[in-house]
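Example (one chain per record):
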Amino acid sequence: MRNESQTRINWIPLAAALGAGLALRLFFLFKYPSGSVDGTIYEALGRNWFAHGTYGLDAVGRITPSDIRVPGYPVFTALFHLLGRGQTPLLLAQIALDLCTCVLAGMLAGILAPASQSGQTRRRVQLAAIWLTALCPFLADYAAVNLTEVLATSLTAIALVALVAAALGNETLSWRLLLHGSDEFTSTLRNTSSFLRSSWFLGGLAVGCGTMVRPETPLILVALGSVLLWRWRRRADWPKLVRAGALAAVGFVIPLIPWTARNAISLHEFQPLAPRYAQSPGESVPAGFYAWTNTWLVRYRDVDPVIWTIGDQPVTMAIFPSIAFDTGDERERVSALIDQYNKTCCGFTPEWNAQFQALARERTARRPLRTYLTVPFQRALTMWFTPRVEMMGYSGDLWPLRRNFEDDREDFLVTVLLGAIGIIYVALAFAGTSRIFLKHLLTGPQIWGLAILIVFCAVRTAFLTRIEAPEPRYVLECFPIVYALGAFFWARETN
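Predicted structure:
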């Protein structure tokens, strides 16, 4: 009777957290419904595949096979569009999936909790992580839009839970009853082989599935490999390293096989992911232009007029901020290239790209630290701390403060609020890490789980600073880590 009562009490705060999370996501669904250009592409790919048997896009009156996007999210959208008209089934499914991510963040926090902590402390940390996830407006906002973020983040969270559990010694899929803070193990999948019950395998499989949603998901394995290579660098530990790497690699490769085979058969190319610039076959890419923007573009508000406009419509020199030019001569050269682009009806030749590439090399030679350090660092700050209002219809502009406050008070206040929330969440993650991990785990096994999470955030952020469009949504896959670490701010030390 006592155990039954405790179970009921344990489920009450969990249900309350998930109920609050559901309310927040429904608020975004009804208050800020929005679509996206990328979402239209995903839906077209999935619809054409299900309706016509061809994974491709309409071109000159016929559906042409394409590898412009990996198939995970298009299939996901198509499945739920079959349930009814419009996007409602899809968005409701994303809300449910996002609530599952709340639980996964709690599981991640529970796995990382020090063994010295009591069951009560473990439960407190798990529930704190779930509450932080449920009340965070960033993923909740994207649950109401047809983009990959919710699905990609959920798969990332699954992979992190599995791989961190394996790194801490729980190498078979019999995880703790996390929501009750028990140290007992479940007996799931008893009748399957130990191979399929491997947390290494499950983590690799989740990474592979995530790669079919967002092609940069394998960065999880890059972080994992970096940590394990250091942890098991001694010869006596090499068998562990080989076993873990082999199991994770097998799981990772399995979801990629059908997509790679399809591209080889339909498009006659070896393409296990997606084209670097998401271009269609034969489509020109302004790679030289991107190389030049990588030497100065740091603000999110410059991404749409500069990056997403080029190649689609004419542009003017007014879209480029003053930091894009070191000299008047450079401005004149860029102006001449933009005039050439506009005269050719938004086209770019290899020579045009080469001239922008030359400008990029000159700017880098003139100030190499700017290209390789300052700009990436500013881009990292942009992605982590820019107010995430892009899906709500607000401008996100703060400066000048007085004018923006007077011109549109709602826009200004929402921008300030969401910007402050982003800073608070990251600050909580640092505070939680300092409060628990640095005091208790410098020599304990959980330090390796912490290392995997921190290295993944660092590797993913560094990678994203070198792409052409530093959008804040691209770091959302790191936020389950932020929630899990931030939860330890509420942990109480026990003796």
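Caption: Strands lie at 56-59, 62-65.
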